[in-house]
Structure prediction request, 393 residues.
Amino acid sequence: MTKIAVIGGGFAGLSAAYMLKERDITVYEARDCVGGRVQSVPYAGHTAELGGQNISDGGSSPNIFRLVKELNLEVEERPATIHIKYHHHDGWHTIPKLAVKEAKGASVADRLAQLLDPHTGEYEAVCRLIHGWEGASPDKLSGEMYNDTLTHSLSGGISSVHPELSFTHQSIVGGNQRLAHKMAERVNVRLNSPLKRIEKQGTQYALTFPNEKTLFDKVIFAMPPTVYHDIDFCGTIEEGRLNEIQSIELGDNFKVIVPLNSGGFESFAIANERFVTFRSTEGSLLNIFYCGKAPKFPDDLILLSDHYDIGGEKPLTYNFADDPYIRGSYSFVKPGQEKMFTELEGDCKKLFSPIDNSLFFAGEHTCTNFDIMGTMEAAICSGLSIAQKQIVW
Prediction:
């Protein structure tokens, strides 16, 4: 039987392995837990999501809901209609809906500066909204690829998936990481096993991990692009292609989570020059989404206390950029990378097309549906695509 290795135990790798569970397949995860950038932890009597929070960030997310049903999980949800409030020198303001004119420029920042005065609080709030959604500051985002996000952010929405700030917030009861755990229960997973080296030996691949060296017939790379630098590929991926994959960055946004003394669901979110806020699905926790800027405590909490009744527990902070096996939040397209992310070869992005029908690529950054790239749905979609369409037995 064909032996398959999956490198990475996040949603992409696990969904591929789960679909191929009847095969001789092993998932190697570098960290001590599965889930990748989806981590659910207990905090202040509730479940906090350190990473992926809203499973409908990928729109209707049909692949997630299919797995949720198949694995007997439950989803909790609440409708949300929010307005963005921002704090500037003279107090609190609400971002109005704007009639957006056409703007040109290599980056989102170039285009936004033509539409809003960069010296205003409104400009800073829109920057944080875009940064929080797409993962990077507007100066690092391709103007061509993210023009829809810019347009919707100025006209009362977030993106083409959420063209208005009215949507349903959904998460898995008990934590989104439960989906990873359920898939992992049905496949062979080896934790604490980062890939160090891969080399071709005849028709097979020799994979080297800290505690073993094993031969496989096919390999699915489902780890973030930011860790490719740490692996010796021994020519299995052509140098030019490898350099392009290694040039992909993950965002610099991260969460600080605090408990709220009162429930309910406000119809606003707070943004300033450093963060944007949103509540957890059940409304008991406040997520402060920092966009590349360090928290300022207690000043930030004092500012937010104008609108939230914040509890006394120590804030919970987690930054995926500090994790050596992840190094960031989610992928984004920089100016000049447009072709790299849009050129297709068959059902795949050309950059991530299979090599010799034996090396395959999965992950939210490989998803061909650009509108959902960076989401949990994109990760699962990529894994299922590999399992269902790409591997020829």
Q: What stands out?
A: The mean pLDDT is 92.
